[in-house]
Design brief:
single chain, mainly beta, about 50% strand
Length: about 120
């Protein structure tokens, strides 16, 4: 089974960019679908973006479309979330998760393997 670990969070200002990384260990991300979720204080965990194991299909939450991009490296060892034009409402703990299938799910319960999360704070 795969283990995942996030990195790249931090404190930025509104309008800035940040790139999160999700690294696989134990095995590569092939053939896992990988998703990014986030959870703000007092709120439920919500879907952000996901990418198929081949990288050919992606899905985004409406709130991040046009600002965030999910992509994976050729070796299938890392998945990235490029976040541009950050807003204060993007502040949350961001989690990477993997699902051992070809379907892109937006429900957190569909993902089997989770990282510990990385904090992203966007100041107004």
């Amino acid at each position: 089974q795969v283990q995942v670990a996030e990195s790249g969070g931090g404190l930025v200002q509104a309008g800035d960019s940040l790139r999160l990384s999700c690294a696989a260990s134990g095995r590569t991300f092939s053939p896992y679908t990988v998703g990014w979720f986030r959870q703000a204080p007092g709120k439920e965990r919500e879907f952000v973006a996901a990418i198929s194991w081949s990288g050919g299909r992606t899905s985004y939450a409406d709130s991040v479309k046009g600002r965030f991009t999910i992509f994976r490296d050729r070796a299938n060892t890392s998945v990235y979330l490029q976040m541009n034009s950050l807003k204060s409402e993007d502040t949350a703990v961001y989690y990477c998760a993997a699902n051992s299938g070809a379907t892109i799910f937006t429900r957190a319960l569909a993902y089997d393997y989770w990282g510990q999360g990385t904090q992203v704070t966007v100041s107004p």
